[in-house]
Design brief:
By secondary structure, the chain is an alpha+beta fold. The protein has three domains: 1-53, no CATH class; 114-242, Immunoglobulin-like (Sandwich); 244-370, Immunoglobulin-like. It is built from six helices and 22 strands. The strands form five sheets. The protein has a six-stranded mixed sheet, with no helix packed on it. Strands 1, 2, 3, 5 and 7 form a five-stranded mixed sheet that branches. Strands 12-22-19-14-17 form a five-stranded mixed sheet, with no helix packed on it. Helix 1 (3-20) packs across helix 3 (37-47). The longest helix has 18 residues, at 3-20. The radius of gyration is 22 Å and the shape is globular. The protein starts with a helix and ends with a strand.
Length: 371
């Protein structure tokens, strides 16, 4: 095949693709076929399409993620022009040396409760804040109690729980208890099981926790926007009978998201993500939770992962792997035995979620095993 013919064929393919991309749904189809976000955006621009495609966003929303990660997905800057490998190396090195970078705010912290006649009472306030994803990069986040992710609710199987939700958002909301077995009227879906919680209102949920495991709570009203902007959190239920629970030294929740702020782990992007630190010989339980729109295969270098539970339910036959594919809405529990000393890279293995010519970004952290 001649070079001229290859160029003609490529041009024909591009024109055909432009004709087919006319909506957000078409963008998703293109992305699933392997075309990068910048390439899809360029095609849409060429077509005069009104659907904006921001780096790190596949919803077409006007999202701060474009500003956050444009440097990681756009064409190389003049300082990293084609062939300027020294500039690329410098940017990669600078990012790694900055890790873990300090930012304002820390999500996923334990939520304290008060007892009321044996009922564990938690309070959540939905409000808008400016959230620092990476050093100096702030985005508008919709949060529970001012953090993204929201605070971690941790109870024991059989507990009676009451959650008081105050809405300080500019629109209505609701809270769904993802994975929990609850009475129908506590499921948190407006106009199906309850009225929406309107701005300025307070709503109370109450139920007995029936099933243990790794679960989530998040908005189920205008949820693409609201969950994407940060209305999400972990709901961990310890089993009443702990005799069959694996014995671990560290219990770590990792919430994956891919909308506000771009690709994030617990609300932060590399180099502001948190490393997981352990001692040689310790066991780490990781609870993956995907609150995003995309699949994220989480890959740990150097150390295998023993997969023990899916969606809160123990697996009848645990298995070993090095990459756990976490789909939207899923929770996976794994155990890592820290048998090798070192700093082990830990990232989403859809590589455009983790690294570019400008260095690592987004869904990257490290497991640090010390002697």
């Amino acid at each position: 095949m001649t070079v001229e013919y290859q160029e003609q064929l490529q041009a024909t393919d591009d024109r055909s693709l432009r004709r087919r991309i006319t909506s957000r749904r078409d963008v998703l189809k293109v992305l699933s076929a392997g075309l990068s976000l910048p390439a899809a955006g360029a095609l849409l621009s060429a077509c005069g399409n009104s659907v904006p495609v921001a780096a790190g966003s596949v919803t077409g929303q006007a999202s701060p993620s474009a500003a956050t990660y444009a440097h990681a997905t756009a064409s190389p800057a003049p300082s990293a022009a084609a062939g300027d490998w020294q500039a690329m190396d410098r940017m990669h090195e600078e990012g790694v040396k900055a890790f873990p970078a300090k930012t304002q705010g820390l999500g996923g912290q334990p939520l304290q409760y008060r007892l009321d006649n044996g009922v564990k009472v938690f309070e959540l306030t939905c409000k808008v804040v400016q959230w620092e994803v990476t050093p100096g990069t702030f985005v508008e986040a919709w949060t529970y109690n001012g953090t993204m992710p929201g605070p971690e609710i941790r109870v024991t199987e059989g507990d009676r729980v009451r959650v008081i939700v105050k809405n300080e958002l500019p629109e209505s909301t609701a809270v769904h208890w993802h994975g929990l077995i609850v009475p129908n009227d506590q499921d948190g879906v407006p106009f199906i099981t309850q009225p929406p919680i309107r701005p300025g209102e307070t709503y109370t949920y109450e139920f007995t926790v029936k099933n243990s495991g790794s679960h989530m709570y998040h908005s189920h009203h205008n949820s693409t926007k609201q969950v994407g902007k940060g209305l999400l959190g972990a709901f961990i239920v310890e089993p009443k009978d702990r005799s069959k629970e694996p014995q671990v030294d560290i219990d770590y929740v990792m919430i994956l998201n891919d909308q506000t702020g771009g690709f994030t782990l617990n609300g932060k992007g590399f180099p502001a993500t948190q490393p997981i630190k352990a001692k040689l010989g310790q066991k780490v339980r990781l609870r993956y939770m995907n609150e995003g729109l995309l699949i994220h295969p989480m890959h740990l270098h150097g150390l295998p992962q023993l997969v023990i539970a899916r969606d809160g339910w123990p697996l009848p036959q645990p298995y070993m792997c090095d990459t756990v594919n976490v789909a939207p809405g899923e929770r996976w529990d794994v155990i890592v035995e820290c048998s090798e000393v070192g700093v082990w890279a830990f990232h989403c293995h859809i590589l455009s979620h983790a690294e570019s010519d400008h260095g690592m970004f987004g869904m990257v952290t490290a497991l640090i095993v010390e002697a």
